[in-house]
Design a protein that fits this description.
By secondary structure, the chain is α+β, with helices and mostly antiparallel strands. Helices cover 18% and strands 38% of the residues.
Length: 370
Amino acid sequence: MKPILALLALAALAITSPPALQADAQTRIRDVVDVEGVRQNDLIGYGIVVGLNGTGDSVRNSPFTEDSLTYMLERLGVNVQGEDIKPDNVAAVLVTATLPSFARNGSTLDISVASIGDAESLEGGTLVLTPLKGADNEVYAVAQGSIVVSGIDVKADGARARRGTPTQGAIPNGARVEREIPYQFNDRNSLVLALREPDFTTAARIEDTINAAIGSPVAYTRDPGTVDIDLRSLQGSPSRVLASIENLPIEVAVPARIVIDEQSGTIVLGKDVTISRVAIAQGDISIKVTETPVVSQPNPFADGESIVLPRSQIEIGQTGTRNIATLDANVTLSQLIAGLNALGVSPQEMGDIIRTMKAAGALHADLIVQ
């Protein structure tokens, strides 16, 4: 392994951030706030999928599937009372969808379908007409159509291969809106902007940007997560006012935060992450296992056989030279990461160094490990 930390201070100090990263990026107001009253609503329904190729629910483990099928057939005028129905091409599913704000009658929605029984796959199935209800138990849409499954489950004698989840799928434009949510947006006298990431600085910048664009103090910051806009002194509908301000550019105050994904080895850090003066020591640890078997021979002309006796030796030690690097206070973590990358340090080792610096109190940022 390379003497990483002996060269760390020199490499980190020698690398500077590209000019493109020096300027603060700007974004639109609409991308960082939600408007009170303009929201989505979740829908859910219980349905039946038919047409499966022997991969449906078993009646023994999913008796509700048989009850649902019997009820559906009776509604269609088919009398199955007293009949022993044991189909294997039917599965009970839960259907979910999201109703957008201001959705109108006849609009279509994408839906997701997931098995709730012991079905092996929903591939090739068709969802039968299913009502979708909201939190108030009212029906807002109906769903039906052929299911698109991305997962694969293949079985053979003594082998099985699975990729993805074949017991869930989707139906693009599989639901149609049948009931609208009543809401008169243009009757409002004020607008409430809710920040998705509450922050005092960002809220104040939104207030200043809106007031400068309109030319009067109509916006004020209620708290770090809310900016109110008074519409009484403005001309035009609330929709027109919102359309005129939602595309205004602002600079978002990003908190100093580091996110480490240990599974993929990904490290994401903000530009404002800083480190204090700190000394870091790291050494290589090696584990060496040596097998030296011993053969035991019987005496000459004696009955017996040769026996191999295992002899193992395990050595745990430290190889290479332990190096200590002292980092000045003006070195940013981005420069540190750039220096580690230049030296070929793995993401796992970077994560260990970052966690150790955080534990030592030298890293000034929120650390999130996933």
